[in-house]
Amino acid sequence: MIDSIMELFREDNRERFHRIWQKAKKGEMEGLDEEEQRLAKVMLDHSEEFFNQFEFADVLSDRQFDPEEVNPFLHVTLHAVIEKQLKDRDPMEAFQFYNAMLRNKCTRHDAIHLLCGILIKFIFPILKGKGSFSLDGYRYLLKKYKFRKPEKIFDLLEGEPDLIIDKEPDQKNLEIFDEIDSVLSNQHFTSIDEAQAFLDDLMAKKNLEPIPEFLGLSPDQMYRMLYRPFTEHTDILTFNRNLSDQDFEDIPILKETRYFLKRLSELQPLKATAKGNLPQAFAREMHDKFSEEPRSYIDQYPIRSEEEDRKLLALRQILDMAGWIKKRNQKFSLTQKGERVVKRGLKMDDFYYLFEIYTKRFNWAYRDLYPNLEIIQESFLFSCYLLHKKARAYIRADKLSSYFIQAFPTVLDEAKINPFFKPEEDVSRAFCLRFLERFCEYFGLVVIKREDNFFGYPNYFVQISPFFEKLFHWRPNLT
Fold first, then answer.
1. Can you give the residue ranges of every domain in the chain?
2. Tens-place pLDDT, residues 270-283
């Protein structure tokens, strides 16, 4: 993607722009490749704004655009790149950002301009020779700004530091470059296309090679686990769809869901508080029956509202996302789906439904004050694989978090905003809290042997549960 951008920015490509423009304005798309056709359509969309520049592009090859001036060739190229990202949904974060902007009443054109504004943060330093493109940084900003108001994004981007740029390749990247250089030195190509095809094939093979940091997974497998966790991973694992009702009986989230829905069916319609929360008596009943571990000082006293039990608040959100409960006219009740669930009881499909909602839709960072660190949630399937590899016997929680950091070292950059703890400590705490306790233990995937916690540090041991063994069927070559 970025190599194509850099090639198009070369001055000698102004003639290429001119050739594409001449065909585009005549409606003659034949003979243009897919990338050129995309550029042609974007140029036509901007014809009123940049007609003269496109018309005389062949004689503007020496023209240097002022930094404060809009470079029309750069502008339409970025547009075309974004169009391709949206078409391919690669990276997925660009597609998600785009949809978020549309939901915020942006026009399609304005949403693409916002995407261009983020992408250009990473392109300008490259053009100035100050760094290489950071895909992780690009994804990070897309996720960071997708919940912002569109009209504020450009101003906020002005304040973004240049730390999002990968200023120098690390040693591993240098080794890869050396390897590519060595391979290319023994090859002879008759065209750029032939050389590009060779490099594409080489990188595809590299992406299939297992690497130690991923505990034997390849970059291709890791990508699919991160971005397609419920599809395209049969070479890694399958989910067991033949579990019995007894297998789910003692799963904490199902016990709480079962009780919540049953009590609501008995008490509905349940009048909400003035703030829209569950009534105090219902919240206290749930809190007393399902207090979170480890128990804190607050558990010694009755809670005053649902807001004092973040776990209960989260459960209500999840059940609302599932479409099993509703709040209408300040009253809580079951939906028709919820009524059916109560009547027949929770089944295997309900577990998987909650599992997918919790991992893909519910925001894990909602319940704590750590930085977003979204990779903790996005990598839940890899972290389950980590448990499969390392937690068959009891292992310290902080040891597991060190394997996680080894696989995703850039997560430390996001944690550096905390002045009181080292980034490794912040990430370790967040990983253990969100993944091990509030996901794995909540869904019955691990057994936790707790000891005294010192200032909240995860001082406990973790082992996969029998249910974990039943739920996941890992491929033999990964054991």
1. 2-164, 245-360, 366-478
2. 999 998 999 999 99
Only one residue has tokens 């549309």, namely: 102
474: which strand partners?
237
Specify the pairing of strand 446-450 against strand 460-464.
antiparallel
CA 270 remoteness from chain centre: 36
CA 198 remoteness from chain centre: 31
Q: Give this prediction's pTM.
A: 0.64
pLDDT in tens, 83-103: 888 888 888 888 989 988 998
Residue 455 to residue 421: CA distance in whole angstroms: 12
Q: Do the beta carbons of residue 440 and residue 404 sit within 8 Å?
A: no
Q: Which H helix or E strand runs over 473?
A: strand 472-474
Beta bridge partners of 238: 473
User: Which architecture, in CATH terms, is 245-360?
Assistant: Orthogonal Bundle (1.10)
**Contact at 8 Å (CB) between 277 and 283?**
yes
45-59: average pLDDT? 74
Instruction: Give the SS3 label for residue 78.
Output: helix
The CA distance from 428 to 420, in Å, is 14
What are the helix (H) ranges across 130-191?
Answer: 135-145, 150-158, 171-185
Element (H, E) at 48: helix 47-55
Task: Please compute Rg for the chain using Cα positions.
Answer: 27
Q: At what angle do helices 380-390 and 397-407 cross, to 10 degrees?
A: 130
Residue 166's pLDDT band (cuts 50, 70, 90): very low
